[in-house]
Amino acid sequence: MTVLYWLRNDLRLHDNEALAALPAGTATLLPVYCFDPVSLGPDAYLGLPRTGPHRLFFLLETLADLQQRYAALGSGIHFVVGRPEEILPALARQLGAQAVHASTEHTTEEAEAEEALVVALGPQVPLVRFETLTLLHPHDLPIGLDRLPLSFSKFRFDVAAKTSVRAPLPTPRQLPPLPAGFAPAALPNASSIAAQLEQPAQIRSVPDRRSALPALGGGETAGLARLHDYAVERHLIGRYDDTRNEMLGEAFSTKFSPWLANGSLSARQIWAAIDGYDATHGARSKGAMQLRLELLWRDYFRLLAHKSGPDFFRWRGLREQLPKPTRPDQAVFESWADGRTGNAFVDANMRELAATGFMSNRGRQNVASYLIHDLHQDWRWGAAWFEHQLIDHDAASNWGNWKYIAGTGTDVRDTAFDVAQQARRYDPQQRYVRTWSK
């Protein structure tokens, strides 16, 4: 039996249900990664590549690491540029594959890609989908997705509290070989991808010494190393609640998000590390509880996006709220994107984002509020800009948080931030502003 494995945002060996569930009779396995022109192409709002240079080069590092890890287990990866619904059925016919395995996604366009692939494969080759991206397995929830509450608090106490987190699956010790005689295509570089997509090549920025990101690069190896360093070596979980609103330095927050976003680090693996911390240090610390809460928020946005479908991305609210009136102005938006608004706190955050592809959670909330409530611009422009810039972009978390700040998510309260007060509270000595003043 030959199985194709469509690699998506599950770029790891550990805690991977799609690999663990390979049928016993799987004689050959072909993992395939498609550089999809939809995810790499221009967005609908700004016309910019959805995957900007920060995330693109992090992805290429991730795939290079994964290729080495697969090779160590007797396998490999076939890299192609093109639509999955065109590439994978052709490979299935060529190799006589009996099934395609894939991690299912929870946002609209990704789900549509899965359905397009099902149609293209036809009834003879099933697309077998696995849940590898959430902390809580959707099949374990005590309610159906259609009953997901429009309140995180209710989700937390009425749903998550009644659902056990599964233990992470072990890393396989061996994988089935590639199909006999099949020579997988090598990992392309950024210029080659751009040429095949007929797009301008994206240029990698020079690493900035001010960056808050750990200098580990992309990939499962780096993600697991960061988790071990943060949770085991430096015991930073215990102080997470005290430091999570800081804005300078790599230790103020976990920085797990880039690896979580492309699936090179599992949320359940992080949860298990928190369990290990609690077991070693006795009673649950506030830091451990807060970190668990952040992982639940991530799940909630994913499940909410799945339940809401296209409504999750539309201008109007999930409760039919209307956003505050906007005055769309390209020049005003560009001043925000470039860090030229004249608000020192906002501008510093936007400069950090442009230089590194990262911004603290505190910064993200404030710059989003400023764009929407002070500059009166369309929140979807901001979400699209973040999608282009963020190294840790995750569609559900990014668009869900923007929707919340715009007042079009699950909350009907005014979500505007007092940015001046926030700057005084979280950067009282203006160290952050001075750091990113140029």
List keywords for this structure.
single chain, 438 residues, alpha/beta, Rossmann fold, Serine Threonine Protein Phosphatase 5, Tetratricopeptide repeat, DNA Cyclobutane Dipyrimidine Photolyase, subunit A, domain 3, 3 domains, 5-stranded parallel β-sheet, 19 helices, 46% helix, 6% strand, globular
Description:
This protein has 19 helices and 5 strands. It is of the alpha/beta class and 438 residues long. It has 3 domains: 1-133, HUPs (Rossmann fold), CATH 3.40.50.620; 134-170 and 218-310, Serine Threonine Protein Phosphatase 5, Tetratricopeptide repeat (Alpha Horseshoe); 314-435, DNA Cyclobutane Dipyrimidine Photolyase, subunit A, domain 3 (Orthogonal Bundle). The protein has a 5-stranded parallel sheet with strand order 3-2-1-4-5. β4, α5 (108-121) and β5 (127-130) form a beta-alpha-beta unit. The longest helix is centred in the C-terminal third of the chain and has 23 residues, at 286-308. It is globular, with a radius of gyration of 22 Å. The N and C termini lie far apart (58 Å).
**In what range is the share of β-strand residues?**
5-15%
- Classified in CATH, the superfamily of the largest domain is HUPs
- The average pLDDT is 95
Would you count the extended β strands for me? 5
Characterize the largest beta sheet: strand count, sense, and whether it forms a barrel.
5 strands, parallel
Strand order of the largest sheet: 3-2-1-4-5
- The shape is globular
CATH topology of the largest domain: Rossmann fold
What's the N-to-C terminus distance? Answer: 58 Å
* Helical percentage: 40-55%
Succession of helices and strands = EHEHHEHEHEHHHHHHHHHHHHHH
The low-confidence runs, each spanning 5 or more residues with pLDDT under 50, are none
